[in-house]
Amino acid sequence: MDPLVRLRDAHSKGIIPDDVYDLTIKRFPITVEGINRIEKASGIRYPVAYVEPSLILTAPSSNSYQFGILFARTIPVMFEEKFQVVIQISAPLVAYGLKGTIHAILAHEFLHFLELMRKISKMELLSDEISGNLFENVYSDETRLFEPRVVFKDRTLLNHITKKFPSGFRDYKLEDKVMKFWADRNLPKANISLDENTVKLSAESLSKIKLDPAFISKINSLEEKSSKIRKKRLY
Q1: At 114, which helix (H) or strand (E)?
Q2: Please, what are the averages of pLDDT over each run of 10 residues along the chain (235 residues)?
Q3: Do the Cβ atoms of 230 and 145 come closer than 8 Å?
Q4: Do residues 56 and 192 touch, judged by C-beta distance below 8 A?
């Protein structure tokens, strides 16, 4: 899959102007570098990722006047009876985010991916819905299972994550840039209500998912090490 196919299509249709398109293309190697860095630091392949040519806005409910920006999302999908996890990266993040911010957000979505795969491997999904509140939230780390320092063997990357996600992601400078150079220019936006944004996976579909035993073994090891760190904090 070409990660830039949707961006190229939007540009060819005149939806994305030349200056924004050129900037996003120019800065996309930072994203590729981040993905390669995460794979090297974790020893696990990054999920399929693509650039979404829209600003993703989200609200707690459809009736809420508050909103946040989702710079990336971890999306589980069933396509032709095959399960896949896709990381959606917003074009505004690629165009206007600092390198450390981009890498931190990519790493954070990777942790969501690991958590999703852990739940599937242990059949811990209690209903037929994977809620957006769990996997497409506004970067809350309060219930994170996997400890970054267990997953990533990269001190600089860990510093980026720690600084960007102390208790939930906020980057006011990035948000201001995105509002000025994207939202105020009336470039594409998508509004998502987290309490409605769910992906349905039936019990039958879940039972058909086949995971690589080596991958599951790796996840189990990371889970055990993360659990030990959390217990040390408690005592």
Answers
A1: helix 99-121
A2: 95 98 98 98 96 87 61 81 87 96 93 87 58 41 70 92 68 92 96 61 72 91 87 60
A3: no
A4: yes
State how far Cα 104 lies from the chain centre.
10
Asked whether the CA dihedral 224, 225, 230, 234 is positive or negative, the reply is: positive
- Distance between CA 164 and CA 179 in Å, rounded? 19
Strand partners, 77: 84
Q: Which of 187, 172, 164, 165 lies closest to 68, judged by CA?
A: 172
pTM for the model: 0.85
Distances (CA, A) of 74 to 29, 106, 127: 20, 10, 19
- Cβ atoms of 121 and 207 closer than 8 Å: no
Element (H, E) at 103: helix 99-121
What integer best gives the mean pLDDT of the chain? 82
Determine contact, residues 135/76, Cβ cutoff 8 Å.
yes
Cα–Cα distance measured from residue 31 to residue 14, given in angstroms and rounded to the nearest whole number:
24
Distance CA 50, CA 5 (A): 8
